[in-house]
UniProtKB/TrEMBL annotation:
Any one GO BP annotation for this protein: polyphosphate biosynthetic process
PTM notes: An intermediate of this reaction is the autophosphorylated ppk in which a phosphate is covalently linked to a histidine residue through a N-P bond.
Binding site for ATP: 113, 540, 636, 664
PANTHER family linked: POLYPHOSPHATE KINASE
Domain Polyphosphate kinase N-terminal, residue spans: 75-181
SUPFAM superfamilies: Phospholipase D/nuclease, PHP14-like, PPK N-terminal domain-like
Protein name: Polyphosphate kinase
Organism this protein belongs to: Saccharomonospora glauca K62
Length: 755
């Protein structure tokens, strides 16, 4: 054997393992005692007492800002926190103090929210589970564990949702003369009229699809309502299965009254009408049973953004695939038979854990349809948004540019009119001969071409020869197709359309108007939290800053150069941007409040946002609390922060306000420094790492006083809200007797937006 097979003398031991360090067994005489190779002890050492093995030195003192000082269990799970948010929406549907049709609307919102949650969040967890990604959530759960918790919580909420409708809203609607009935509830005259409607309007649209060896199981599109039908052949008794899709291009709730002016309104669900006429679809067969079901599919696709590929074409290709995503939820009627359910599970390849049994009407998003009824007494009182005093109308609308030369303006939608502020700003810029350029981001716009006055104004500006740049975010989830249509419309009009940066969504809400005034160029700016969308501006609560401040104008110019060109600027004067600046800026501001508190100076943090998830910012708030800084958070949706935990967050208070308007603005107030920021960014990974966002500092004392008044109202002890406990429970507040305030109604009153 060569050297490669040689056993190293220093590592060899006997087979019995008796050799000790310092001894070497003889290879010649196995019975010979091995020689001791260690030296004998010196005479003076024979009676020495050996002490115990010393312990390690004291641990190094950790620095005050080390995140290791914070406990591991310091976050709530974001998915379960979202379900808590939707439960608060459901609580509004159960609230008898709400107008009845508004309660029905909240039931519909709950259903729509849940659809999107499954299409995106649950789909993402399933994808991670199936691909073997064992990345745990911030609270330490695996994707599989999160899916189990989500399914259990969802079963509870779906049951409560159905009960809220069947036992609460539905009977109350019936008392008010609005009924949703079954076919069996109808009289002969109504049945005859609806049968004629079915024959003329519905029957031609339906396509029953058989399932047998010659007909494979049909594709079931996401969110479609379907009838699973079992029929029997009377000639041989053979049972067969078929699927009938309920059309989604006709109203789900069929109005029975011929007169639309009637105060009473009776509706028959479309699936009931179809089920009553299945014998016409399966002529010569006997209908054994039929059940309603609905499939939700993964809609969280990723566009592979190749720098050399047309992003528009890549996105259109992915959109075409969205409806073929794998199923993530199967909703079934509570009376579905076992063998039909087993067939659906097998053919759709659905995990039994993903089956949701609904005790009542499936897909209550159809209740949105009831809001169109002319029953004003059952709705929130109408309101007319007020024109901001700075833009007050006289015989002719005041010039926005003249107003902004006098000072900054803060608008608060929906209380302030969008059409007489933001829309007028762009329209006046388009018509003004002195305006040289308009640059604007568009994230979500309204429907199809011709419905957006903002886009119409940009087209007019381009036709007048102005330089117009529109950054259209075509990756805005569920608005992709509409935004593609807008982009092409703008391009045809001569607008320079840009799609943003590879790998990042452009979510900031910014507009820049460049105007020639004598020998100087002046820039007018709008930075906001809401979309340039006149429809949502009446439903969403948002803030926007108008300013002619040269520093903000320079900042937006630089930011647009980043968005449209190759600039990589990351620092600005009066704005913060992500993905590089907002988290760092917020953490610096929080650290400054900590320093002020330690120096015995006034300090405090007040935040209003949609969601609070980012662990780094949450940890910064924990450290602020530990330093004695008061922290108040108003959050609409998800909150992963645990408030009120002794030693961790006893100085942090979290509340949530939901109501008539969707609370959408983001406000950051650092009390010690006396600074206020507003903008588009929530405290989430996607906003801080994967989106272009912008926050702007509001400096004018008149405007900061308005922001303080907004926060004071939202945080008033008597404001109607939910308060988050350390346990994760959201508790209705206030609990004390007294005059309960509605924050949104107070804002309506303050801004003069009345009916």
């Amino acid at each position: 054997m060569g050297d490669n097979g040689r056993v190293n003398d220093e590592t060899q031991t006997s087979e019995t393992g008796d050799s000790r360090p310092g001894e070497r067994a003889s290879l010649d005489d196995p019975g010979r005692r091995p020689a001791v190779t260690s030296p004998p002890p010196r005479t003076g050492d024979r009676h020495r007492d050996f002490g115990s093995v010393p312990s390690a030195p004291p641990a190094a003192t950790r620095s005050g800002g080390s995140p290791n000082e914070l406990p591991d269990d310091r976050y709530f799970n974001r998915e379960l926190s979202w379900q808590d948010f939707n439960a608060r929406v459901l609580a509004l549907a159960e609230d008898p103090s709400q107008p009845l049709l508004e309660r029905a609307k909240f039931l519909a919102i709950f259903a729509s929210n849940l659809d999107e949650f499954y299409m995106v969040r649950v789909a993402g967890l399933k994808r991670r589970e199936q691909t073997g990604l064992t990345v745990r959530s911030a609270d330490g759960l695996t994707p599989s564990e999160q899916l189990t918790y989500v399914a259990a919580r969802n079963a509870e909420l779906v049951k409560r949702h159905a009960q809220a409708f069947e036992n609460g809203v539905r009977p109350a609607l019936a008392e008010a003369g609005i009924r949703i009935v079954a076919w069996s509830d109808l009289g002969e005259a109504d049945r005859a009229r609806l049968s004629e409607y079915f024959t003329q309007q519905i029957f031609p649209v339906l396509t029953p699809l058989a399932v047998d060896p010659a007909h494979p199981f049909p594709y079931i599109s996401g969110l479609s309502l379907n009838l699973a039908v079992t029929v029997r052949d009377p000639s041989d008794g053979t049972e067969r299965f078929a699927r009938v899709k309920v059309p989604n291009n006709v109203p789900r709730l069929v109005r029975i009254e011929q007169s639309r002016d009637s105060r009473t309104a009776t509706f028959l669900p479309l699936e009931e009408l179809i089920a009553a006429h299945l014998d016409e679809l399966f002529s010569g067969m006997q209908v054994s049973e039929h059940h309603v079901f609905r499939v939700t599919r993964n809609a969280d696709f990723e566009v592979e953004e190749d720098r050399d590929e047309d992003l528009l074409q890549a996105l259109e290709r992915e959109l075409a695939q969205r409806r073929f995503g794998p199923p993530v939820r199967l909703e079934v009627a509570h009376d579905m038979s076992e063998h039909v359910l087993e067939l659906l599970l097998r053919e759709l390849e659905v995990d039994p854990q993903d089956v949701v049994e609904v005790p009542g009407l499936l897909d209550l998003s159809c209740l949105h349809q009831l809001h169109s009824l002319n029953r004003k007494e059952l709705k929130d009182p109408p309101f007319v948004p007020a024109t901001h005093p700075a833009f007050g109308e006289r015989e002719t609308p005041k010039s926005v540019f003249a107003t902004l030369r006098e000072g900054d303006v803060l608008v608060h939608h929906p209380y302030h009119s969008f059409s007489t502020s933001v829309q007028r700003f762009i329209e006046q810029a388009a018509a003004d001969d002195k305006v040289l350029a308009i640059k604007q981001t568009l994230y979500r716009t309204s429907g199809t071409s011709g419905e957006s006055p903002i886009v119409d104004a940009l087209i007019e500006a381009a036709e007048r020869g102005k330089q117009v740049v529109a950054l259209v975010e075509i990756k805005a989830r569920f608005d992709e197709q509409a935004n593609i249509t807008w982009a092409r419309t703008l391009e045809r009009a001569g607008v320079h359309v840009v799609y943003g940066l590879v790998g990042l969504k452009t979510h900031c809400k910014i507009a820049l108007v460049v105007r020639q005034e004598g020998s100087t160029i002046r820039r007018y700016c709008h930075v906001g939290s809401g979309n340039y969308n006149p429809k949502t501006a009446r439903l969403y609560e948002d803030l926007g800053l108008f300013t002619a401040d040269p520093d903000v104008g320079a900042d937006l110019t630089d930011l647009f150069n980043v968005l449209t060109g190759y600039s990589r600027q990351q620092t600005y004067r009066n704005i913060l941007t992500s993905p590089n600046g907002i988290r760092r800026g917020l953490l610096n501001f929080i650290e400054n409040e900590i320093s002020l508190a330690k120096a015995g100076k006034p300090a405090g943090v007040r935040i209003k946002c949609n969601s609070l998830v980012d662990e780094q910012v949450i940890d910064g708030l924990y450290r602020a609390s530990q330093a004695g800084v008061d922290v108040d958070v108003v959050v609409r949706g998800i909150c992963s922060l645990k408030p009120g935990v002794p030693g961790l967050s006893e100085n942090i208070r979290v509340r949530s306000i939901l109501g008539r308007f969707l609370e959408h603005s983001r406000v950051f107030h650092f009390r010690g420094a006396g600074t206020h920021w507003i903008g588009s960014a929530d405290i989430m990974h996607r906003n801080l790492d994967r989106r272009i966002e912008a926050l702007v500092r509001v400096s004018d004392p008149r405007l900061t006083a308005q922001l303080d008044a907004l926060l004071d109202s939202a945080l008033d002890p008597m404001t109607r809200c939910w308060v988050l406990r350390p346990s994760g429970e959201w508790v209705p507040s206030p609990t004390d007797s007294g005059q309960v305030r509605d924050h949104q109604m107070e804002m309506l009153r303050r801004h003069g937006a009345t009916g």
